[in-house]
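General statements about sequence and structure are easier to judge against a single worked case. When preparing material for the folding task, we compiled for one chain both its residues and its backbone structure tokens. The amino acid sequence and the backbone structure tokens for this protein are reproduced below:
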Amino acid sequence: MFITFMAVLLLFFMLPLSISASGDAFIGVNIGSDISDMPGSTEIVSLLKAQSIQHVRLYDADRALLLALANTGIRVTVSVPNDQLLGIGQSNATAANWVTRNVIAHVPATNITAICVGSEVLTTLPNAAPIIVSAINFIHSALVAANLDQQIKISSPHSSSIILDSFPPSQAFFNRTWNPVMVPMLKFLQSTGSYLMLNVYPYYDYQQSNGVIPLDYALFRPLPPNKEAVDSNTLLHYTNVFDAVVDAAYFAMSDLNFTNIPIMVTESGWPSKGDSSESDATVDNANTYNSNLIRHVLNNTGTPKHPGIAVSTYIYELYNEDLRSGPVSEKNWGLFYANGEPVYTLHLTGAGIIFANDTTNQTFCVTKSNADPKMLQAALDWACGPGKVDCSPLLQGQPCYEPDNVVAHSTYAFNAYYQKMDKSPGSCDFKGVATVTTTDPSHGSCIFPGSHGRKGTRTNGTSLAPSNSTSSGCLSQYHDNGGFFTSSLILVLLLCAVV
């Protein structure tokens, strides 16, 4: 189910260089390359421009892509891959050569603003941990020699799993096994005005919590006050996992007596597809998480511990990476497919700043995944009867007949009613079996009312109809046994059309 347009990201200022500084947060995007049909560099840059993406992070320093990014103004973070750490961390000359080849050769035309030295080294490549700080210092020396140290910041992204006892955040501390690495690294970040880079994945926190963490808490959905998590030591209230993890990192730094280093989230996102054990890796949840994350970051709300302090964040990731190993979810974190089609349309209306093309407030009404089939059938009968929805596209041989089941047919009917009622409150309920989504349910040649998709069709219903699914008037009596429509539906439609 593709949509032609997708709103993604807009230009904002860089993260402030001290914890007390003022400034606006930005949203960036990671660009991975484990893709069987990897887009060319010019294609990638064209997509970035079309979507107003102004901050990107690369997992290497790909020369072709850096050249394509020249003169675009896009702020670029390049990376030293983990497999190059050993040589750079053991040789000042090797580090200088890396900087000359991958940074100095491209600036100022390419706007390189940061260097990631390795990625999650402490947790994925612990044998290289002792040389991270050396690698950072050697690279910094090369930047100083080139007079680029003020323009380009250096850090190393960490997995949030290096933080122990992370809730309540006030009792969090870094795994003390890594203190010989973390202390000198934090000293470097403090002395150079850089930031602690942290990868924050509420999806994994939720998955591994065995039901302790509610899904709404992971997805930034509003919680009633009595459901908010409260730090008993500080009495700070936490409404989402993201803020709790970031504050845990702040408190972990405080535990080592560092209180003025800002945090940048170098990876965060939600997968849009998973295997049988990943039931919450869905398009709707990915859309909800990333849309709410973007809104949260760009509102500059900060965290409960540091309200108003920017936490700039890079979304993981630009493209689905089909070559990644592991569970299905590993291949489905992207905002786009490799051909440039969006996986889903981010719903950002009301976020203060509207990204790219998201000006439509495009929403749809669909069946809930756990809806009772009998309730669905009753609601479908009502929508195609008293609700006066045009259900003719659901007839056999018509575009929306397939898939031939009550879930698919009721989704079409519910959405048609919702659009006809101009998305008015209460028009997507149907006694609790329907819900609003930002993901276009159109498929194949079946274009749903309200879609701005492949055929650009849209229903502008203005006629009045009952506001909810209370039964009245003509009751259609067709039954969707396995989704099969009998000819009685035609009679029902004809009869109800004259009511």
In short: DSSP finds 14 helices and 15 strands in the chain. The two ends are 36 Å apart (CA to CA). Residues 283-298 form the longest helix (16 residues).
